Amino acid sequence: MIEVEKKFLYNEATIKTLTEGAEFVGEKIFTDSYFDNETFSLTTKDIWFRKRGERFELKLPLNVKMEERVSDQYKELETEKEIADYFKWNLSEASLEELVKKSGFNPFATFTTTRKKYKKDDFTIDIDTTDFGFNIIEIEIMVSEESDIEEGIKKILEFASSIGSELGYVCGKGVEFLKKNNPEHLQKLIEAKVVK
User: Fold this and answer.
1) Cα within 13 Å of Cα(66), Cβ side
2) pTM
3) Cα angle 132, 173, 149; round to 5
């Protein structure tokens, strides 16, 4: 499955409309640490390697060029084997945690998010509030094939438009954290055309 998602800023009116008639799935609090090396070899390719709680996750971009991006599409690797295979690491030699350190990947952003999750029709709606003051909605739909991505984007945009969300570009939490805390790293992403 491929996750197609679009981020939106929100206000209380948007939340009310968005959650009306939606099924509340639950609330959770989690801490993310995002990893990269000194040359930013992952994030400058729009690859996001994070540890959420005790579990590593790797998000690989499926997008066209940033300038043409309407939504975010990533292939998500969530098992240690998938991640190790991607990096060509041998899990029989060391734990994933040890391999991460040996490879020179260190955290560049760590923050905590409170997430309220809803389901509405085919959409998953995440309402995120971070401990560094950034609040965001992510509307997601899962598609089975890359050929279905465009249709997934269209559905998200129609749904968001129907609830009055502004459809412009909104960056993710990791990028917003960099805006507030690490302008040098952010500048590298701008130069690499990963962020606008």
Assistant:
1) 14
2) 0.87
3) 160
